[in-house]
Amino acid sequence: MELDPKSLKIEAARAALQHVEDGMKLGIGTGSTAEEFVRLLAERVACGLKIVGVPTSERTARLCRELAVPLSTLDEMPELDLTVDGADEIGPELVLIKGGGGALLREKIVAAASRRMIVIADESKVVDMLGAFPLPIEVNSFGLAATVLAVKGAASRLGLSGEVKTRLADGKPFVTDGGHFIVDASFGRIPAPRALAEALSVIPGVVEHGLFIGLSDLAIVAGKGGVRTIDAKSQ
């Protein structure tokens, strides 16, 4: 029987839970796959697993509280053992595109504070080249038009083109938990993600971008053939 997308997310989350040990300080991601992980984690907590989580968004924090998953903050626990999070695309060398849920800044801060990061996803998220999913870029609301022009210019110098538009919610700019806007860059293909990451990082209005490079060491991917792992070291 072929599993539906939700079932695949649950299977990837279940496999990631095997890496969670008693006493861990755990970064908890944002998005539909991460939420399946939270639900399974809550079941283990109810059975006696002792962990403390740092959520990457207010949305994740609400779900954790509803399910009685103990929480702290990154200020109280600035060093984490493990972060488990989803991804919008998983490319070669486990370079990721994240931020579809609008939490990329906090997700990256939490991932960087962790000794390990495990990405969980269904097979459709694994790609040979990043870019089919629009790249989220978190930006300051001040000078938005100038920042968008700078993003387009940086992309053009790398041979990239495509629509760069402000993400909307109910007809107004989507506002992140940090009070910023997000622009989504539809490049279609990103053959040199490291070069693009460097170019975006020096634009003053860019707060953070959704290219996660060198942060994840393992991906757990569920597909119709079962669950498989992708190790960054083996690529």
Can you characterise this structure?
It is a single chain. The chain is α/β, with parallel strands linked by helices. It is built from six helices and 15 strands. The strands form four sheets. A six-stranded mixed β-sheet has the order 2-1-3-6-14-15. Helix 1 crosses helix 2. The longest helix has 15 residues. The model has no long low-confidence stretch (mean pLDDT 96).
What share of residues are in beta strands? Answer: 25-35%
Number of beta-strand segments:
15
Instruction: Give the helix level as a range of percent.
Output: 25-40%
Secondary-structure class:
alpha/beta
N-end to C-end Cα span: 31 Å
Output the strand order for the largest sheet. Answer: 2-1-3-6-14-15
Q: Enumerate the spans where pLDDT stays under 50 for 5 or more consecutive residues.
A: none
Q: Care to give the gist of this entry?
A:
By secondary structure, this protein is of the alpha/beta class. It has helices at 5-17, 32-46, 58-66, 104-112, 144-157, 193-201, and strands at 25-28, 52-55, 80-85, 89-90, 96-97, 114-122, 135-139, 164-166, 168-169, 172-173, 181-185, 206-209, 211-212, 218-223, 226-231.
